[in-house]
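User: Good morning. I'm curious how carboxymethyl coenzyme *A would be positioned relative to this chain. Could you predict the structure with it bound?
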Amino acid sequence: MGKPDYELINPASGTRSALPVRSGTIGPDCLDIAGITRDQGVFTFDPAFSVTASCESKITYIDGDAGVLLYRGYPVEQLAASSSFMEVAFLLINGELPGAAELTAFRTSITRHSMINESLLRFTNGFHHNAHPMSMVSAVVASMAAFYYDSMDIYSPRHREIFSHRIIAKLPTIAAAAHKHALGQPFIYPRNDLDYCSNMLSMFFAVPCEEYQVDPVAAKALDLLFILHADHEQNASTTTVRLAGSTGTNPYAAISAGVSALWGPAHGGANEAVLNMLEEIGKAENIPKYLALVKDKGSHSKLMGFGHRVYKNFDPRAKIIREACHRLLAKLGQQDDPLFELALRLEEIALKDEYFVSRKLYPNVDFYSGLIYSALKIPRSMFTVMFAIARTVGWVAHWLEMIGDPAMRIARPRQLYTGPTQRDYVAVAQRR
Ligand code: CMC
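Assistant: Good morning! Here's the predicted structure, ligand included:
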């Protein structure tokens, strides 16, 4: 038997409405408010969606108080320790871990879709050399709709599969093209003999005039970061992809919208902002002054890489990345990296500060990820692009889940209107 309904009573008229309880497999129950506008003539008000479940989903579960993150039920710690990004991509998209043959077929398909149309490649060259790569990536992804008409029927499962493989495969190629354009170096084509992350490093760092050896330590570190960034349920960019996708637009347009949403410093842009912040702080003596700045609401500054809408205890991804950062810097002989030392000190001081303690603000996934990217020689402007490459898997999984749901409807929130009431038009000559 289901749980009893909640009841909403209009204090003026006494009208009663039932609010049925909807229970998931784990996590808090949700009240189904769909009937209250019909019964009571009111809407609910929840700006920034702090307490609203916008959809049903089977993909990712977060318990923000306990610091739990599950992809399709599997703890992210286990996947980070034993899995690979390609395996996680298969899991998120298909719901189950792949068998050996399925994994090989998936990897092969992704590998074979990694080239991009030469005309699309030339778009990159139209940008100014110092264009931010996120603007290039979002533009090129949106332009893909003009090239891949053969797989744009969103109601065809086969077309949806081709799109999914294409976008996951081509994102690193698009990112590498943006990187090479900024450097003024020739584009390096993808290599089918390399795994996903090794191929990405090769496209980023190889040059045509000499042999490039991928450092397996670097490829492994990148793979780990991609696993940890692959999905995070209804975050701002995923919600953007779902919202855009709910109009029936083509999936490239929806993913491009997600890339743009990710760019903001409150979301994926935080990894780039953390490094800028550490450089601005410069040395440990300046930490108290910087913390005073971020505590001052008038400054519009935040401690970048700290805080999360959902995690109120710790971000499990940050814990893994912090350890990975220690290991990687030691392996690369960069253990005395001054910015890493400054980050550790900043974390230590902030975690004892009453402002951060009382607001339950902890380091998030982006506090240390930029330091790993820096150690891998990935330029700062590319950090959010790295996040976008990984999160494309999550965006695709959510888009597929939504489009595959026969009950899908266009997403269309309501508002609390606070503008002028009705008034009559006044001709220009009569206006003050
Ligand atoms: N520095 C200083 N104060 C903060 C910070 C911060 N990083 N984060 C939150 N606060 C304050 C906030 O101003 C509020 O103060 P008060 O109660 O006095 O008004 C209080 O803490 C509670 O904030 P909140 O409601 O928990 O924050 P939110 O859910 O609206 O925003 C956030 C979450 C991630 C946007 C925010 O914490 C932030 O801007 N952090 C810095 C940017 C960042 O690191 N973003 C990456 C997020 S994780 C990866 C991803 O999602 O892409």
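Residues 235, 266-268, 270, 294, 302-309, 359, 361, 364-366 surround carboxymethyl coenzyme *A (CB under 6 Å). Residues 157-183 form the longest helix (27 residues).
Let me know if you'd like a different ligand tried.
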